[in-house]
Amino acid sequence: MTxxxxxxxxxxxxxxxxxxxxxxxxRHDLANPEAGARAYAEGHLPNAQFAHLDKDxxxxxxxxxxxxxxxxxxxxxxxxxxxxxxxxxxNNTQVVVYDAQGGMFAARLWWMLRWVGHEAVxxxxxxxxxxxxxxxxxxxxxxxRVLGTLTERSSLVTxxxxxxxxxxxxxxxxxxxxxxxxxxFRGENETIDPVGGHIPEAKNRFFKENLQxxxxxxxxEQLRQEFxxxxxxxxxxxxxxxxxxxxxxxxxxxxxxxxxxxALYPGSWSEWCADPARPVA
Length: 281
Prior knowledge:
Layout: E1 6-7, H1 9-13, E2 21-25, H2 35-42, E3 48-50, H3 53-56, H4 77-86, E4 94-98, H5 106-115, E5 121-124, H6 127-133, H7 162-171, E6 175-178, H8 182-185, E7 203-204, H9 220-228, E8 237-240, H10 247-256, E9 263-264, H11 268-272
Parallel strand pairs: 1-5, 2-3, 2-4, 4-5, 6-7, 6-8, 8-9
């Protein structure tokens, strides 16, 4: 069986030492970038390796032309493939990613694997808290891997650029959905990016609304109902956030709901607001 959206702690426990499975810990703190690595060293899922948001899942912030690409722009594809190989991933590997923040960072790696054409990747539903609540244990041992042989295949996802969304302000063909909290969307309490506000005409769907009170994802039926109130056609939707990370949480929720086809704006608000010529709402 291939897991391509979520996997439960109970199901993962049956396969965690199985050959052909790779477990990746993506815990992170935007205010303290080394917190995730320290948490990993203190205790992680058995057989797991650590994936750093800034070092492994993002690329250069400044493009060759000097423009700012956002706080977490996508890395060079070849470099990312090499990173995945370093973790021992092959074309037939089942990958499981987790964090301790309800999938806030794990969903980014889930989406990125799909970006290079790898479908067998799932997020641990409920993350580390769900694993511990199930009575499972943690390890402090690192798991060295034989270099993987993953190759890039046709992408399973789509992206749009700032220029695409700038043009969209005139033709309004796309529905832009911002995954940030409502106050930041309104331009209030902005502590991360230099400008507060949002892309004109964007709608707001805070990524944490995808979760139940226990930190697990809501049911496909509930997610489908809630997202259908925000967008009519996922194929005409673009997910964004502050830097292209939590937008992937909404993309995962859409996939769980069976609403495929939405794109990601990787640069998101951090790239958009860096150019004063782009309008702000």
